[in-house]
Specification:
The structure is a homodimer of 358-residue chains.
Chain A (H helix, E strand, L loop, with lengths): L24 H8 L3 H7 L8 H14 L5 H8 L4 E6 L6 H15 L3 E6 L7 H10 L3 E4 L5 H9 L4 E4 L9 E5 L1 H14 L5 E4 L6 H16 L5 E4 L5 H15 L5 E4 L2 H13 L10 E6 L12 E4 L2 H17 L7 E4 L2 E3 L15
Parallel strand pairs in A: 1-2, 1-3, 3-4, 4-5, 5-11, 6-7, 6-8, 8-9, 9-10
Antiparallel strand pairs in A: 10-12
Helix pairs in contact in A: 1-2, 1-3, 5-12, 8-9, 10-11
Chain lengths: 358, 358
């Protein structure tokens, strides 16, 4: 790195360059022949300053490599313009899309995204301290937080918006997708097509969304009087899909008619295992459905029937909700629930939902 | 949010809660009956303070919800403990893995990751200002930067490490993977298996890595005296793979024997298009290879033959290199080049590399 503008270069005895102090508004003021407060005004949005002054100061600032310190400013404005985003599992194909959408929306509002990833959802405690010490303006969490953890946000008056989850026990700000409605609709339409033996591959134990998808499917099956239902656990990864189908086939002593997977990637693993290992045609002999609508679900090899979440609209809603909470701290919690849209791929036989008595 | 600990709650006339001021070290000192400087020492790593004092202060701090302000501290230490990470295309399946690895490695070192995503590599200018104003300690860039942009880092003495790219024109800190060696090896082994008509599906024009992969493959083909080579452009996405194969087939008036794709996702699109639309068996009639080693490349439907980058080792190297640059600013640039490993999947017929005259 080593190179820098002439006026601030220090060459030590041995020829090695030493870092010099950072350029301040006083340096700019001196060089531009104006007062420090004039420099400060030039960088304050909306402050009264002549165009001529603003241009002169901007030119000198560029020459010296000066930029106003957003961090120092945050100590005065009490806004850091940093938003924390907590994501549990970035290698799950759903979350990179969420993160990308959130990131672009924060940029448009001049806010930077401080990223916190968790190898597992249950590792959240270790990162919470960082939110407090970095004084983020607020947090969007796509990871599960306990009641106690949420109380810590309250205590610190730090705005918090849940993404794709919420708390049953108390109202919180949340942007969700209606998992239950989606799962019930899938079951209804699978049942209408004549499927009678249902397998369910659930998410990991600490995934609230996965549990909701699984339990809603089970409840709807019970409501329809379908009792040949087996549920196995999965880990949201590709391998879980194949392993899950194998377990289900053992439990059924044969294969199920339909498998509902708690996310898309498991559904893709399930399809591949069915075709390759069990030599079962999908959807002719086995219907497979997923949740999320990730990109590979749409690939020609799969054409998965799935429930696509409106990720862009959800990201937009989460970012606006967080900003509202930051600007209006006493605001009562709000929950916005979006509806997933059915992608009728080629991996499942679906009947008419209307005729199935809902 | 609205709830907070009793001792700091202010209920306004109408029952609406108003935000109160944040808790400071003085509040903790007063409640704990110690001096503010004692509180400060308790939160300074390595400072001399009795165990009894530390425990008393920690307990009160917990009760009040006090955490030392990392941002304020950064003004004194001149370290923000924030690292910027610049990623161009998060929906490319390769980058979420990189980001996840970087994030976890920064966490272990007490550094937070400020994320900057770019819809396109060429949008970088608009985010550079943010690095300066947030006083990040350094930046890892997996996006392309111009010579002029790199000079701005120098001018501000801000450490910069390139990930998976470098500059030809001048030395920079970079962690790379040997694209050329990998591409040459793939070509050599494909040629050894008897393929004679080669198609190449390249990356987008602004991808340095893509260009390197393409050009190295072309150079090796020329060296081997293979002239039936057609190259088409791609966009790193699934659709580009199918479209690319279609264009190549038109150019060849028939299909090529082998297609080298500049990334995995395009190779998967190419395989699907070959099977579904062209009814070509892979690898019997068409060999397809990719680069990166993303998760779906290993799925049963594909079993892609690809060059897997050692992402974990590269992430570790990039993070240590950045920290070295932060601690030792005058340090001359270093470039660490890793080698990709061949994943011999089932999507290509490969011959013995030894016999093909390299």
């Amino acid at each position: 790195m080593g190179r820098r503008s002439k006026s601030h270069e220090t060459v030590a005895a041995g020829g090695t360059r030493r870092p010099t102090r950072a350029i301040t508004s006083y340096d700019v003021a001196r060089r531009a022949g104006v007062s420090q407060s004039a420099v400060s005004r030039c960088f304050k949005p909306g402050a009264s300053v002549s165009r001529q002054m603003r241009e002169r100061v901007a030119r000198v600032a560029r020459e010296l490599g000066y930029t106003p310190n957003a961090i120092a400013r945050s100590l005065i404005t009490r806004r850091s313009h940093l938003a924390g985003v907590l994501i549990s599992n970035l290698t799950n194909l759903y979350y990179p899309e969420v993160l990308s959408e959130l990131s672009q929306r924060f940029v448009h509002r001049g806010i930077r995204l401080l990223l916190f990833t968790l190898p597992r959802e249950s590792d959240v405690d270790q990162v919470l301290d960082q939110f407090w010490s970095y004084r983020v303006d607020g947090v969007i969490s796509a990871a599960r937080l306990s009641l106690q953890q949420v109380a810590m946000f309250d205590q610190r008056q730090m705005p918090l918006v849940f993404f794709n989850r919420y708390l049953k026990e108390r109202p919180v700000n949340a942007v969700c997708c209606d998992q239950a409605g989606g799962a019930e609709m899938l079951v209804t339409r699978l049942a209408a097509a004549g499927h009678r033996r249902f397998g369910i591959i659930g998410g990991p134990p600490d995934s609230v969304v996965g549990r909701e998808r699984t339990e809603s499917a089970q409840a709807r099956l019970a409501q329809l009087g379908i009792t040949a239902v087996k549920t196995v656990g999965g880990n949201y990864d590709y391998e879980s899909g194949g392993r899950g189908l194998l377990e289900l086939s053992k439990a059924f002593k044969g294969h199920p008619d339909a498998v509902i997977c708690a996310n898309d990637v498991m559904a893709l693993g399930c399809i591949d295992f069915a075709r390759t290992d069990l030599r079962l045609a999908v959807p002719e002999r086995l219907s497979v459905v997923g949740f999320d609508g990730v990109a590979p679900a749409g690939w020609r090899s799969y054409q998965l029937t799935t429930l696509r979440q409106p990720v862009q609209r959800m990201a937009e809603a989460a970012v606006s909700m967080l900003l509202d909470c930051i600007e209006e701290p006493g605001r009562p919690p709000e929950r916005r629930v979006f509806t997933a849209s059915l992608v009728e791929g080629g991996s499942a036989r679906l009947g008419d939902g209307q005729s199935s008595g809902r």
